[in-house]
Amino acid sequence: MKKSAHTTLIFITLIILPLLISKSNGDARDQIIRKYCDRGFVQENIKLFVENFIRATEIASNEMQVSHVAKVVVGTGPNTNYLLTQCYSHLASQDCRLCYSQIRTTLSTCFPRIGGRIYLDGCFGRQQNYSFFEEYTGPNDTVICGNTTRKSVLFQESMRGVVYNVVGDALRNVDYFARGEALVLGTNDSVYVLAECWKTLSPSSCRACLENASRSITTCSPWSEGRVLNTGCFMRYSDTNFLNPRPTTSISSNTGRIIIAIVVSVCTFVVVFTVTLVSVLYIRNHKSKQQKRKGSYDQAEKMAKILTEISVKFKYSSIEKATRNWDECNKLGEGGSGTVYKGVLLDGREIAVKRLFLNNKFRAAEFYDEVNMISSLEHKNVVRLLGWSGFESESILVYEYLPNMSLDFFIFDEIRGKELSWEKRFKIIIGISEGLVYLHENTKTPIIHRDIKTSNILLDLRFRPKIADFGLARYLQDNKSHTNIPIAGTLVYMAPECLAHGHLSKKIDVYSFGVLILEVVTGLKNNRSTTTDTASLVSMAWNHFQQNKAEEIFDPNLMMHLYTHTNYQKEAIKAIQVGLLCTQEDPSLRPSMSTVLKMLAKDNEPLPAPSNPPFMDENAMELNEITHKLHQYFNSDNSCSIATVDHSQFFPR
Ligand SMILES: *[C@@H]1O[C@H](CO)[C@@H](O)[C@H](O)[C@H]1NC(C)=O
Ligand SMILES: *[C@@H]1O[C@H](CO)[C@@H](O)[C@H](O)[C@H]1NC(C)=O
Ligand SMILES: *[C@@H]1O[C@H](CO)[C@@H](O)[C@H](O)[C@H]1NC(C)=O
Ligand SMILES: *[C@@H]1O[C@H](CO)[C@@H](O)[C@H](O)[C@H]1NC(C)=O
Ligand SMILES: *[C@@H]1O[C@H](CO)[C@@H](O)[C@H](O)[C@H]1NC(C)=O
Questions:
Q1: Identical fold, 32-128 and 147-238
Q2: 308 or 253, which is more confident?
Q3: Is 478 annotated as catalytic?
Q4: Ligand 4 centroid vs 189 CA: distance in angstroms?
Q5: Would the pTM of this model clear 0.85, i.e. be above it?
Q6: Which residues, if any, are the signal sequence (predicted)?
Q7: Fold for domain 408-643?
Q8: What CATH code would you report for 32-128?
Q9: Facing residues of 395 across strands?
Q10: Which ligand sits closest to the CA of 232?
Q11: From the centroid of its chain, how far is CA 70?
């Protein structure tokens, strides 16, 4: 009892407190105010549309790392995607990224509608199939008033005055942004105002938009809160302060540093500094965060229990030493949620360190999910978690290090590809399917990995495969086997039904595994190119297989070997056939992973002929097929939002 309370304290100090403290430096303001999805559906080519959409959000992701606005156009013709995302200027860049990830998540739930827009308290995003960048007014312009408190006449007058000033300031500022606040005379009340135009507007459009907004917002008098969501601008007033601290007043970041100093110097007196931090926290969050804190606390307790049950806690300083202070040269890779480094512990053990930046609650939830999931896994073909560590706003997962990199490093390389003989490759395929059978069938709650691809298959010294990166994995709950999820994973490995509906089922992994088999046999990437003249790997394999010419697509690195051993050749053709069975468009026709394993490993296991190829090239997904899909979608959910929005990670890394 005592021990677990103690661990909880340590845990809260290390992980949850920093979250709350770092949060008080700014706020991503990623609450959704309103979302509009268009009425029209994607008509021409769903797959191309989705590819363009995902590509556009990827480009925007990169731009939003360095700037507060992204204007992106991807594709040509009717499937062109136009995307605008913008954070309001009072957000720090880190908060902007968080707000943006909310845009990306939520916009993707408009699919298969042709477009949509979303207003949040900290940012705005819009995606269409036409160039809307100069639009500043439209029928969906809205004013939303909060009606909780009726304000005094003095307040209403102050509000009008500040709105007037802020509009003038915004028009003078190059970034089309202004903020204002005023104390209401004779009261303790203040009024806070923010206005911002989209940066793609001309000055005269911005003026028209803000002038309209300032007229609309005054209709919210006498209420305490008003927001205008215009086509070209955003405006808000409130009697509570919703403006992030200005970056120049760095009081809070100093406090942050002082707290870090305390943590470093009094490290041993855990209880002492916990009390210090708790009191700091209490003062800071006393009023508004009571409920939030309770949630975090419950979660912290749960997690502390899991962590102590399952794994070793590493000292932060020893992890720092092991990675030579996060030396760039030790970087193994970078993903959506963090960076992976190689490290060597003092005892000589090699480790892979995943460094996650946890700067708000949903990142913490993600960390919790990943730890919770992998800590319970134990299989020779699943990468092993050795322990964890945490400090400040970082959380760290320590894995076994696998020296041979990942599968893609070999099979797509002309020279290194020679190191993987057919025997090795076939063993790798078998090993991965064993790992997947374990995840799907042998654990208490089935786990869907959702991002099976060659770069997530790590190889040990003897080229034994291990499935890694559970950042996107989800438990499959019995009663919700068809939960709608936002589009996640890596596009070329993604099952078509996942593109169209976001259905979560084991067959998603089976599809990705099928693509992976074909890649291992052919040494080719499944680049579903968007130009119509190059067929995808899956359709190429399908065509060759149908014409009994499967051997023509073997990896040239394997040709000699396969031609001189008829047994191997049979095996390779069988692998292609299994790959095609796994990539059939109808998920119900795809075999389960245990059937796949049987087909591969047993010599006389009967193999059905693949009958239902995935949509093969850009034009092959026929119109009635699409209409059917849309109809299904439409009937299952009349609104354009998808029922379960998952707030974690979304798109391909
Ligand atoms: C306005 O919103 C509705 C749905 O909320 C949508 O169907 C319509 O296309 C939107 N209009 C414009 C011009 O965006
Ligand atoms: C955008 O999509 C809608 C609905 O599918 C379609 O009616 C319209 O013509 C498209 N616009 C362009 C410019 O392709
Ligand atoms: C105020 O809000 C409540 C619910 O929050 C709603 O029932 C009521 O109709 C609103 N009143 C006005 C005047 O908007
Ligand atoms: C302003 O606040 C002080 C202390 O918080 C309180 O005593 C006073 O009554 C308030 N004045 C008004 C006008 O609300
Ligand atoms: C603002 O513009 C919208 C769209 O043109 C219009 O419907 C609305 O009446 C305008 N509001 C005001 C207060 O002028």
A1: yes
A2: 308
A3: no
A4: 9
A5: no
A6: 1-26
A7: Transferase(Phosphotransferase); domain 1 (1.10.510)
A8: 3.30.430.20
A9: 356, 390
A10: 5
A11: 18
- Protein residue closest via CA to atom 4 of ligand 2: 40
pLDDT tens per residue, range 242-253: 998 876 433 333
Assess whether pLDDT exceeds 50 at residue 546: yes
Torsions phi, psi for 314 (to 5 deg): -90, 150
Whether 150 and 124 have beta carbons less than 8 Å apart is answered as: no
Out of 324-333, 477-486, 511-520, which region has the weakest mean confidence (pLDDT)? 477-486
Between 564 and 601, residue with greater pLDDT? 601
Beta strand 177-183 pairing with 350-357 = unpaired
Alpha-helix runs per DSSP H in 523-565: 537-546, 556-564
Q: What is the topology classification, in CATH, of domain 147-238?
A: Killer Toxin P4; Chain A (3.30.430)
What's the pLDDT score for residue 363?
54
Question: 311-401 falls under which CATH superfamily?
Answer: Phosphorylase Kinase; domain 1 (3.30.200.20)
Q: Say if ligand 1 is within 6 A of residue 3 CB.
A: no
CB 221 within 8 A of CB 190: no
- Which protein residue's CA is at the shortest distance from atom 9 of ligand 4? 188
Q: What three-state secondary structure class fits 276?
A: helix
> Does 191 score more than 80 pLDDT?
yes
- Compute CA distances 265 → 184, 199, 262, 409, whole Å: 45, 46, 5, 44
Q: Is 361 annotated as a binding residue?
A: no
Domain residue ranges in the chain: 32-128, 147-238, 311-401, 408-643
Task: Tell me the two tokens of residue 207.
Answer: 């003026």
d(CA 475, CA 444): 10
- Residue 300 pairs with which residues in a beta bridge? none
Which of the 8 DSSP states describes residue 552? Answer: G
User: What residues line ligand 4, using a CB cutoff of 6 Å?
Assistant: 187-188
Of the residues 451, 469, 555, 646, which is catalytic? Answer: 451
Give residue-wise pLDDT tens across range 494-533: 666 655 545 668 888 999 999 999 999 999 988 654 334 3
| Alpha carbons 436 and 370: distance in angstroms, whole number | 17
Would you state the structure tokens that stand for residue 520, as one six-digit string? 């291992």
Q: Which two tokens stand for residue 303?
A: 């997690």
Mean pLDDT of the chain: 74
b/e per residue 198-231 (b: at least 16 CB within 10 A): bbbbeeebbbbbbebbbebbbebbebbbbbbbbb
pLDDT, tens digit (0-9, with 9 covering 90-100), for 597-633: 999 999 888 888 888 776 543 333 433 344 334 333 3
